[in-house]
Amino acid sequence: MADRVVESSDVQVPEIPEILEKVLLFSLEEAKEKMLQGEDVIPYTALVVKDNLFIENHPGETAEECFNFARHTVQNARGADAYALCYDGYVEIDDGTKDALIAEGGVPGEDEGYAVGFLYEADEDGALVFEEEPAYIGEAPNFMVALKSADAYDDDEIDEKYLDDEDDAVEDDAEKPEA
């Protein structure tokens, strides 16, 4: 999935809200593990709601279709604290185009989101080799720009929307980002 423009930044890494940073890094690590096991990464969102993490795949025929599915899911996520959209793509750097796992996301009400990623390449044996640390890529669209803070919603309203069906929530509390 490659047809996405994220504004690159030559400036210092901005202060990313802690909950967003956690969900972005969690998403990158999950995608990296999939790829190291030989699986494809289907674009997906990770949505933080209260103490739960909901993951939803967004397959599509084109990159634009995947992003539209993700945008639709996230922009209607009342009561969510943050989200990450994770996909396999590429970044253009001075040395050319590099493959990258990318996670972009945002928090309710902020004008811009952030994109981070792991650059990777295949070694001579075809095994994937990832950079040790994720890199800040730049500003990204924030699908939550029109939402209010999660605190603005009633707990019962949030529970009704998300938590009545916990099948989609990540079960292992040790691996999900904390609110």
Keywords:
8 strands, 179 residues, eight-stranded antiparallel β-sheet, 23% helix, 32% strand, alpha+beta
The residue ranges in which pLDDT falls below 50 over 5 or more consecutive positions are 166-176
**Could you describe the largest sheet, including whether it forms a barrel?**
8 strands, antiparallel
Q: How does the helix and strand content classify structurally?
A: alpha+beta
**Percent helix:** 10-25%
Strand/helix succession: EHEEHEEEEEH
Give the rounded overall mean pLDDT: 84
**Beta-strand residue fraction:** 25-35%
Overall 3D shape: globular
Measure the end-to-end span: 30 Å
**How many domain modules?**
1
Commentary on this structure:
This protein is of the alpha+beta class and 179 residues long. It has one domain. The protein is built from 3 helices and 8 strands; from the N terminus they run βαββαβββββα. Strands 1, 2, 3, 4, 5, 6, 7 and 8 form an 8-stranded antiparallel sheet that branches. A hairpin with a 2-residue loop joins strand 2 and strand 3. It is globular. About 6% of the residues have low confidence.
Strand-helix topology:
Elements: E1 7-8, H1 18-36, E2 44-49, E3 52-57, H2 63-75, E4 82-93, E5 96-106, E6 112-122, E7 128-130, E8 135-141, H3 155-163
Antiparallel strand pairs: 1-8, 2-3, 2-4, 4-5, 5-6, 6-7, 6-8
